[in-house]
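User: I'm writing a short report section on ligand binding and want a predicted complex to refer to. Could you take this sequence and copper (II) ion and write out the structure as tokens? A short remark afterwards would be nice.
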Amino acid sequence: MNHPRITLKTVAACAMLAGTATAFAHVTLPRGGVTVGSDYDAAFRVGHACEGAKATTGLAVRLPKGFILSDAQARKGWKLDVQKNAGDGEVRWTADSPQTALPANERAEFVLRGKVPGTPGPLWFKVLQTCDVGRIDWAEVPASGSSTAGLKTPAARLDVVAQGVATVDVRDAWVRQTVPGQSGTGAFMKLTAPTGTRLVGVSTPAAGVAEVHEMKMEGDTMKMRELAGGLELPAGQTVELKPGGNHVMMMDLKQALAKGSTVPMTLRFEDAKGQKTSLDLKLPVGAPEGADAAAPAAHKH
Ligand SMILES: [Cu+2]
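Assistant: Sure. The structure tokens for the complex follow:
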């Protein structure tokens, strides 16, 4: 799978994007970040049992420094142990019997709650997964930065972001390259919001106007127009902006966008409570491998 090709201005936001491409196979937290100092339900997803094992029989989460545990969710048929030490607490679930263990082919979430620190940055939860045969310690933390790419058994990462920074996870973002004289182009990406929100605005110094567009059939012609009220991002669902579908429209381009260059872009979000946040991105120009780079049939307004 592709490593997300995107870089961000802020370290916190950057952390949110960095490689969890093989997330399904690990013990992970859902996509997206959390605002400094807020309460967080950490739902650890167990994607599979240890290699060669039939079931997961135990899960122990070491709490990172600065995370203040409030409680953990009990599981039927499992024993729950909570150690609330300052700085190195642990939450442990243990299956009562082989019958209540988690079968290798089933996924499950183990949930604990707590308050995240008041300073932005990645939080690493190290998780020991015990199976009927063997164990895996998901405890690797990158030496620098927050990308887990290349780590075999990465710890589960949670990105704590500054007030005002969106907690939305953005992946595989790119801008279609243009030729000199071309006035408009599209930008595409995958957005996952941990809590329901809307993409209400886009701006970029590369274009005079940037809008979120939808494609709609009018009679037998496909037309595009600005999405009134913004783009809905339901909690936990990945919404894709792609060629031929919803997209970011960039108009009145200041200059031709060559493959290999980057375009700064700011996304603005607003949640149901009217809370406004934003995210600063740098989008690569040129379709990533595997993306559907075919031009929409009628990219005209
Ligand atoms: Cu458009």
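A remark for your report: The longest strand covers residues 207-218. The helical segments are 11-17.
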